[in-house]
Specification:
This protein has 378 residues and is of the alpha/beta class. It is 52% helix and 8% strand. The N and C termini lie far apart (55 Å).
């Protein structure tokens, strides 16, 4: 089936981009996907943006086209539905790299989750619905390399080409199951801008600070090792774990090496020792002599909050099992924390707190209040 497809249009000039925009702007639906290089670069970036209209598949090269502002009206147009599969990560990347805003989405993965599908990967759904098979080997390919192989190009275009048919199939099932309102509200919430936590490759040593098996001195040494590794990874433009993995850095901080032979005992290869042995030993020495770092102090939640959180988790898990979906489909995580921190006392209060998903309030409002012990719960 896929072998009969015409080749996709490679978009790497302003003229071709403008021609693509004429097509996309005339559509009521477009399918979208992105490919990034998180496994191959220090700072992840979008390396390919795929679009499909009813008439063509496009592969946009953002590594060549530095100005993609022409795309912004498509993403923000409420009259053009954007079909994604697993939209969350794509939206994070597109917001981060290009500042796009979004309106009117349909996420085929979220639709499948709302329906209770046990396997919601695009390859699984396309295989189940249409007998199509995708080569998953390219998921971890270096999309920042040029030129892309014929296999990568074929894989990339398949990520959007069949989303129209999949979307229509899943919408029909959502309507028949009475769950379309859940999915539609989830799509709308995905469009809302949230100050996302920046994913920094080689995050600071602070992500280790909650580990009880590290003393403050060991944590201080580890902080110096992490800072050295981040600088080296940035210079080489590769993910920090491709310099030295976390477990080895932790081991070095616990068993301070004094000579290069000690580095080998900690798990460094001959090549790593040859390239970075002196730098690692220097970082360890600086960490051993430096003032102690302070652990990041998390704000302790009170017992009442923890009890409410546990009750809500138990309730949504029970309902999820009964309905045949994951528990977060019943009550999404942001509401879980919000309701445990500020328990509503009535359905009216709950409606205000969960204003972005009124269908869940209608279906489960009384049950939520009962789980929380609300005074007006039945």
């Amino acid at each position: 089936m896929s072998e009969l497809l015409p080749p996709p249009i490679w978009v790497d000039t302003k003229k071709i981009l403008e021609q693509m925009m004429v097509d996309l702007a005339a559509q009521t639906r477009v399918a979208v996907d992105t490919e990034s290089n998180s496994l191959h670069a220090f700072r992840e970036q979008v390396c390919l943006i795929q679009f499909s209209s009813k008439s063509a598949d496009y592969l946009v090269d953002p590594l060549v086209l530095k100005d993609l502002s022409l795309l912004a009206p498509i993403f923000s147009d409420p009259n053009i539905e954007k079909i994604f599969h697993a939209a969350e990560y794509d939206l994070i990347c597109l917001r981060r790299d290009f500042g796009f805003a979004f309106a009117n989405l349909f996420d085929t993965m979220q639709a499948a989750r709302v329906l209770g599908y046990p396997a919601v990967g695009l390859d699984s759904l396309l295989g189940r619905k249409f007998g199509l098979h995708m080569d998953k080997r390219h998921q971890k390919a270096n999309w920042g390399a040029r030129p892309l192989t014929k296999e990568q190009i074929h894989y990339a275009r398949l990520d959007t080409h069949y989303l129209f048919n999949l979307r229509d199939t899943l919408e029909k099932e959502l309507l028949e199951s009475g769950r379309f309102s859940f999915a539609k509200e989830d799509f709308s919430r995905a469009c809302m801008f949230e100050e996302a936590k920046q994913k920094v490759n080689g995050e600071s040593w602070e992500r280790f600070s909650a580990r009880k098996d590290l003393s403050l001195r060991e944590l201080t040494v580890l902080s110096h090792l992490c800072k050295w590794r981040d600088l080296e990874a940035e210079k080489l433009n590769r993910p920090p774990y491709k310099v030295i993995v976390d477990d080895v850095l932790v081991l070095l901080s616990k068993n301070l090496p004094e000579q290069k032979v000690d580095l080998a005992a900690a798990g460094l290869s001959e090549k790593q020792i040859r390239l970075w042995g002196d730098s690692v030993l220097t970082a360890v020495k600086h960490g051993a002599d430096a003032p102690l770092v302070s652990r990041r102090q998390s704000v302790a939640k009170d017992d009442a909050f923890l009890r409410r959180m546990e009750k809500l988790k138990m309730w949504r898990k029970k309902v999820g099992i009964e309905v045949g979906v994951e528990s977060d489909i019943i009550l999404p995580k942001p509401y879980l924390t919000l309701l445990a921190e500020n328990p509503p006392m009535s359905v009216e209060d709950l409606s205000v707190m969960m204003k972005d998903t009124p269908s869940r309030v209608e279906r489960y409002g009384e049950q939520i209040l009962k789980a929380l012990g609300g005074i007006n719960a039945n």
